[in-house]
Amino acid sequence: MGQTLFDKIWDAHVVSSSEGFPDILYIDTHFIHEVTSPQAFDGLRQRGLPVFRPKQTVATADHNVPTINQHLPIKEELSRYQVDMLTKNCKEFGVELYGLGHPYQGIVHVIGPELGITRPGGTYVCGDSHTSTHGAFGAIAFGIGTSQVEQVLATQCLLQSRPKRMKIEVNGKLQKGVGAKDIILYIISQISAAGGTGYAVEYAGDTIRSLSMEGRMTICNMSIEMGARCGLIAPDETTIEYVKGREFAPKGEDWDKAVAYWKTLYSDADASFDEVLSFKAEDIEPMITYGTNPGMGIGVTQHVPETASFEAKEQGSYKKALDYMGLHDDETLLGKPIDYVFIGSCTNSRIEDLRQVAEFVKGKHKADNVTVWVVPGSKQVQQQAIAEGLDKIFNEAGFPLREPGCSACLGMNEDKIPAGKYCVSTSNRNFEGRQGPNSRTFLASPLTAAASAITGVVTDIRTFLKEEELV
Amino acid sequence: MATKIFKHIQTSVVPLPIENIDTDQIIPARFLKATTRDGFGNNLFRDWRFDGDDNPKQDFVLNNPNYSGKILVAGKNFGCGSSREHAAWAIADYGFDAVVSSFFADIFKGNALNNGLLPVQVSEDFLKKIFDAVYADEHAIVEIDLVDQFIKIVATGEQESFEVNPYKKACMTNGYDDIDYILSKKDEIAEFEGTR
């Protein structure tokens, strides 16, 4: 019997396996940030332990940082204290920190891949659920809690039970204007926000294979939004080309050896999965969410479902979500006025996302009723965008390019969506209050977000594309 | 390091029959700025519990004096979303020893188990029975026994067994900690590193 990609990587990292115990899994790189690490470092101090493998630990400040005037001290006292604490802990324990002002600073799931730290076949963890992003390289990567952050700092290992394996295939040709974000929002809308719980999900099929690394990262990033432990995509030439030449990628002979190994990383033809799902690319429209979890998504031309279409025990939760969003049964979102557009987050803040938005908004201007924030995923993305002149295009369109960080994805730093306001957001979560107390989030792709910023209402990007083709 | 021991509890319960309760509801991100593990209970379910002016919302169950107890009972897919362990800290800090639901998100479940907070997964039917019992009598008592792995509605005697990883059960009933266990395997880790 053949093996799945997931099992090949897992087996290569099991330090010890005992009946009745979770496996002890070796972690190649541990990413840390300011929010979920301070209590873990405190734990090490209490136990009198060092960081076991500081060179396999990489730190950055992203959640709690402002995205304007990063050269000034952080205004908010508690945020500043937490970021300072990370600096202090990294210094004391000998961990490399790409902090504010460092040319490598950025969202932890953007910098790992762009620095060549994330590679096929590796194991990556971070005290952040969107660690699943790194699985796009054909790696095992998942989010952990702070007690586990302490565990990995202390031992470079994690106690972990092997999850079940699921394969999700997407085959066929995507419609124009439909991209990776729409694919993953569609999948989650079909299987629900809990549909992947307990599984490692491998994405396969020719549609997935045709995606760039940025697109694959968007897909794997949101694996956690269906509850999956992790998501992964077998490495191929696209993956190898992306990693090649990056700062910390292997070089010379090491590179050749690594590539030879990476080419063995795929699910064997006779590998068995606990669950296999298939979707057709042609069925996927530009997607938008209408509710308060990422599973509550529809094609942008579809209507909000009727409460009566749900089972009786689910109707209370459903009505609560619609009330929160200020929506009603059977409403169409097309044409709904919006207040904010946020283009950023570990889901959609990479250079490809910014290029795509810039290409679309060039020569257009945002609607007066909308505030737009474009937040690059990292300092390197920001510099690249400036080098390509994207900042000028953004400025002329009324889309100011800010500085890197998690920004308005999570309502923690200064960037929050005000109460009652609607935001079309390229981030990953539409939970109540996620972008700020009582904020209302419509999750969508960068193109849908940009088109909606131009019109001031929820918009089907395909109507623009048709017009542009006619011209 | 020793952690809290959990073997058996018998207590009234707090019902929260909402599905897909994510960790942003349990503890919003703006309250994650602390650098210690203490005090998160004050902000448990912050935006459901308090209005914008910090006044308690009377219609939220934690503000209803009729309901109290050491067990939180919630709808399916409890704890989805962010991996923030602060969610488990907040629930434990508020005074709960266990959460009962028909389905838990993975990361939350692990975080709870690492903090002496027992996640008890029951069938949809049994969850409904608990809600029915507590809505019929707000003082209804529920018993959870980790040693023998059952949960019981005391008044009716209805009970169900629940699953728990045997290793995590041993940790919780003895107050053991994962790090102590892995540290005992340090030689194997070094040996593993040598083979790569």
Automatic annotation (TrEMBL), chain A:
GO biological process: L-leucine biosynthetic process
InterPro entries in the record: 3-IsopropMal_deHydase_lsu (IPR004430), Acnase/IPM_dHydase_lsu_aba_1/3 (IPR015931), Acoase/IPM_deHydtase_lsu_aba (IPR001030), Aconitase_4Fe-4S_BS (IPR018136), Aconitase_4Fe-4S_dom (IPR036008), IPM_dehydratase_rel_enz (IPR050067), IPMI_cat (IPR033941)
Domain Aconitase/3-isopropylmalate dehydratase large subunit alpha/beta/alpha: start-end pairs: 7-456
Described purpose of this protein according to its UniProt entry: Catalyzes the isomerization between 2-isopropylmalate and 3-isopropylmalate, via the formation of 2-isopropylmaleate.
Free-text remark on how the cofactor is bound: Binds 1 [4Fe-4S] cluster per subunit.
Keyword entries, A-Z: 4Fe-4S, Amino-acid biosynthesis, Branched-chain amino acid biosynthesis, Iron, Iron-sulfur, Leucine biosynthesis, Lyase, Metal-binding
Protein's organism: Mucilaginibacter gossypiicola
Reaction equation(s) it catalyzes: (2R,3S)-3-isopropylmalate = (2S)-2-isopropylmalate
Pathway: Amino-acid biosynthesis; L-leucine biosynthesis; L-leucine from 3-methyl-2-oxobutanoate: step 2/4
Gene name per UniProt: leuC
Protein name: 3-isopropylmalate dehydratase large subunit
Cofactor(s) the protein needs: [4Fe-4S] cluster
UniProtKB/TrEMBL annotation, chain B:
EC number of this enzyme: 4.2.1.33
Domain Aconitase A/isopropylmalate dehydratase small subunit swivel: 4-124
Recorded catalytic activity of this chain's protein: (2R,3S)-3-isopropylmalate = (2S)-2-isopropylmalate
GO CC terms of this entry: 3-isopropylmalate dehydratase complex
This protein's pathway: Amino-acid biosynthesis; L-leucine biosynthesis; L-leucine from 3-methyl-2-oxobutanoate: step 2/4
GO molecular function term, any single one: 3-isopropylmalate dehydratase activity
SUPFAM superfamilies linked to this entry: LeuD/IlvD-like (SSF52016)
Record-linked Pfam families: Aconitase_C
Keywords: Amino-acid biosynthesis, Branched-chain amino acid biosynthesis, Leucine biosynthesis, Lyase
TM region(s), chain numbering: none
Domain of life: Bacteria
First-tier enzyme category under EC: lyase
Gene3D superfamilies found in the cross-reference section: Aconitase, domain 4
Single GO biological process annotation from the record: L-leucine biosynthetic process
Function field: Catalyzes the isomerization between 2-isopropylmalate and 3-isopropylmalate, via the formation of 2-isopropylmaleate.
Quaternary context: Heterodimer of LeuC and LeuD.
Family: Belongs to the LeuD family. LeuD type 1 subfamily.
Protein name, UniProt field: 3-isopropylmalate dehydratase small subunit
Lineage, opening ranks: Bacteria, Pseudomonadati, Bacteroidota, Sphingobacteriia, Sphingobacteriales
